[in-house]
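Hey, can you fold this?
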Amino acid sequence: MATMRDNPYGAFNYTVSLGDGDEASVVAGFSDVSGLGNEQNYSEYRNGNEKFNTVRKVPNTFKNDDVTLKRGLIGSTDLFEWIKRVREGAYEPRQVTVTLLDEARQPVASFRLRNAQPKKWTGPTLAAKGGGEVAMEELQLVHEGIDYQ
């Protein structure tokens, strides 16, 4: 995948895959992907006979940030149908993969979200004063971890 180079990769060439195997594919690309991250929690601990008068930081659990996907509203109901099934009690986690591409559209890095599930869907903001605005929808995902490849 990625090779060492002097210039960093651009953030504008990427693909998003929502699901593996028999899961329904999502129509259209996404204009924005944000929230790829996690945060490690630490406990403070100090033995009574420690040499230094300070606490140690012991790593314990970690928290994954919610990932937000945005795309122009295209008339496809695939995201909303997934949310609807989950809302009605279905357990439908998916392996979501965001793949960064180089200028030649070759994969250079992938971020795989394990067991991603829809948390929130936001429809477009509509305004009659209009002109050149695009109707956007937004999907917020929760997940159980990010694998970087």
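Oh, and this one too while you're at it.
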Amino acid sequence: MMARLLDDQALERSSVVANCAMNRERGLTGSNGYGRELGIDVVKMITDRLSGGAEAFDWLDLCCGAGKALLECARLVDDPRLRITGVDLVDFFAGPSHPGVEFVTASAGSLALQRSYDLVTCVHGLHYVGDKLHVLTRAASWLSADGLLVANLDLAAVLSDEGRPLRRRLTEPLRSAGFDYDARRRRVECTGHRQASLPFQYLGADDQAGPNYTGQPAVNSYYASA
């Protein structure tokens, strides 16, 4: 039986989503840092690109929480060519501010962006998003020609209209659309700008799904085959 499903507006008012503390205090490095969760050294990636002669480096971080990791990165790189944008549903960002970092209060699914990005990340943020697949495909469209998208994605939270995890029914369409999925690490990646689509229709979200593999309450997303 399908759970009681919420639309995006109701989901954003949910206490599970609004009170999520997943990325409030997360830093760039360390046992709980971006490097460990994403499997990349963000600072090295940026400095390698800039030292190689790039005119600029743009990093977009979705569901950034307080944004401590972004401010830390800006201070470490200390290069005016680095531009970082952090997006979160809750307007509660860390300080002091840095001229290379901007914070945007918005849902990841409704962003209207005017430029492309060399790096797009989402550290555990998709756990609290309703239409996770929509955010993934939109994020791929925001990449530069050689940009990288990395996000945590739990396929156990992507369900059919019968309430069963899509898992293998989703992994092949993801690969066909240009995404690589690491089932062990629950991580999805994509390289290079693309207009991707997936053969699923979003039905709504369940904010009463309970804890996921992180131990934190999360949101299940329901889809019908398109």
